[in-house]
Amino acid sequence: MFLIFLRSLVFNVLFYTVLVCLAIVALPTFALPPRAMLTVAQWWAKATLFLMRVVCNIRVEFRGQEKIPAGPLVIVAKHQSFFETFVLPGFFVRPIFILKRQLMQIPVFGQFLVKTGMIAIDRNAGVKALLDMTRRAREAVRTGGQLVIFPEGTRRAPGAPPDYKTGFAQIYSSCGVQCLPVALNSGLFWPRRTFMRYPGTLVVEFLDPLPPGLPKDEFLTRVQAAIEDATGRLVEAGREQQEQLIGSAPSYAASG
User: Fold this and answer.
1) What ranges in the chain are assigned the alpha helix state H?
2) Which ranges does the record mark as transmembrane (predicted)?
3) Among 9, 62, 157, 256, which residue's CB has the most CB atoms within a 10 Å radius?
4) pLDDT, tens digit, 9 for 90 and up, residues 49-67
5) Nearest to residue 189, comparing CAs of 234, 227, 135, 139?
């Protein structure tokens, strides 16, 4: 376990060093179209994947890429880790995240989010926030964007009971496009609330798209069942691998 601690420490130092360097490189892109800034973000994602593999012995596998539809789309993804927030955009031409407003207040990073057209929501504004978010999401998708939503609103540890909100179903209905569910097991290898990084095979799986126009109740049932079933399968496989590599899966990874 000491070796994992040491590797995690080295990884985090390099991770934030690369982040700072690329943030400096990205400064001129504020005067360029958003695509330029997203390109720098993709460089960061690729560098991070390299560091994960070389330093932490975390191999990342992407499955079902052939299922990703072209054009406007709503992506509904499981959220277990910071990992998916910077990796998922690389699979889409014009990714747009729905995120909490507080992130917009972070110096430089917040300006990056504004520049790239991310949609902020004030969680304390109730119905007004949902209506505004739905309107902006519809406009983004109609102009060719791919909307990325974490339906539980925040990171959930592997094994924690699902907590799907209903607002994303309203967005899906309003946008009138296909929905791409995404399952993953990132929380086993890049857990929340700790700097530790555990070895193994992190899997992101793109599932079968759902057609537009489903009734809200049917959509909610189908998308949650698809994501939770696939995520459960990936988490179980990941834990079995961790038991072989380090003796047991981290106990806190399954906590709520």
Assistant:
1) 2-26, 34-56, 83-87, 109-115, 127-142, 167-175, 216-246
2) 9-31
3) 157
4) 999 999 999 999 999 999 9
5) 234
Which among 87, 62, 63, 88 has a CA at the least distance from the CA of 75?
Answer: 88
**Between the CA of residue 80 and those of 46, 77, 154, what are the distances in Å?**
20, 10, 8
Residues pairing with 100 in the sheet: 121
Instruction: Please give the model's pTM, rounded to 2 decimal places.
Output: 0.90
The answer to whether residues 256 and 160 touch, using CB atoms and an 8 Å cutoff, is yes
Output b/e per residue, 68-85; b: 16+ Cβ within 10 A. Answer: beeebbbbbbbbbbebbb
Please say whether the beta carbons of 57 and 188 come within 8 A.
Answer: no
Q: d(Cα 75, Cα 175) in Å, to the nearest integer?
A: 12
Closest CA to 248 of 184, 199, 186: 199
d(CA 35, CA 11): 28
At residue 252, the pLDDT reads 53
pLDDT tens per residue across span 99-148 = 877 777 777 777 788 888 888 777 666 677 778 888 888 888 988 899 99
Position 254 scores a pLDDT of 46
